[in-house]
């Protein structure tokens, strides 16, 4: 571990001063190398995770796309947020100095890789891509579910990067030790609520606390309105079943609660789903325990029993109502990481938005299925409640599937994430690993390249000229 951290520390000033276009070229080269190695990496991932080849090939493509997306972010240079305020002797509050502000990389980032996405949220995943684009070296604490894949991926990707820009460590003790190491300037995490909270406390308790960006548990509630159910009940059932059972429910965006206004015949949609192995024994134990707790809760009935066998798991679907959910909230309102979901009946016209606000904690997503042209004060109240408890509000769709695109938000109020103002997917993710610095009355020769008047990096510069302050407020008029 020590050598990996030392290499990251040595690489930090190199990456920080590397022109954005060079960073971009390195990220594109890393993406191309990853794609070129797919025939080697995918079978290794299948062996270690049990995930199917089509899923893994799609994921490795997604990972390359993420790297290329952040390559473009780096090349454009807009993420530096350059603001130049010219010296102004006639400033309305007294003479203003020359002020030049931009964002600089924090330094080495520790990334705790996820188990359910061995490519997209692992060694070369989104956290790594965004940190490298920001100019930060990355140390990945590999997930124990795919150690050999992690090492091989790092070898392939790091060959396209400056020395020390990407390293891998293994084991819980090494991960915690790295988190406490003063060379680490920020950390990211995708995993369980308990694990994320423990790591966040360690990051906060350091002599010099660091930012910790954790993506934790999520129930992802979805509401079906009476109009939607009347129009397309069968299609909703099919989409629900596919979203719950995909990848054996081992997705942070799986819909854990489906609210319906009447009895909902969803069981048929779950028929024929083949057993699927869970990623590792720890997930099997956790899922088995949560499933038993839910099935034993009074007021919960079984619609699809499912099973946990040596061959894998099949989906379990339960039904209940709002009163039972409220009475047994401590048992029922915890994530079951696996193919289990609950259908919850509500009474049409009741204040479901208020109930959700009371019952459901922060989620990565929340959704609603509505009828054609549907609009009402009840629906608007519901949508406002869904916005308040989630980072992404979906209409007539399912939360599984997180698009790799600039506007995506993957985060939300706690416990969905430790920081509700950031995202781990989308171009805004780069801001997690940057901090602002201002140069005041600095000679041109000593300014960093992005702040110089000749702008050698050719990045966007927002300028506030002298005399501008006398017109402030005119836009409002």
From TrEMBL:
Source domain of life: Bacteria
Record domain Aldehyde dehydrogenase: where: 4-263
Membrane-spanning ranges: none
Annotated InterPro entries: Ald_DH/histidinol_DH (IPR016161), Ald_DH_C (IPR016163), Ald_DH_N (IPR016162), Aldehyde_DH_dom (IPR015590), Aldehyde_DH_Superfamily (IPR050740), ALDH_KGSADH (IPR044151)
Record key words, sorted: Oxidoreductase
Gene Ontology molecular function: oxidoreductase activity, acting on the aldehyde or oxo group of donors, NAD or NADP as acceptor
The keyword Oxidoreductase belongs to this UniProt entry's keyword annotation: yes
Positions of region (Disordered): 449-477
Composition bias, Polar residues: 467-477
Keyword Transcription regulation attached: no
Protein name: NADP-dependent aldehyde dehydrogenase
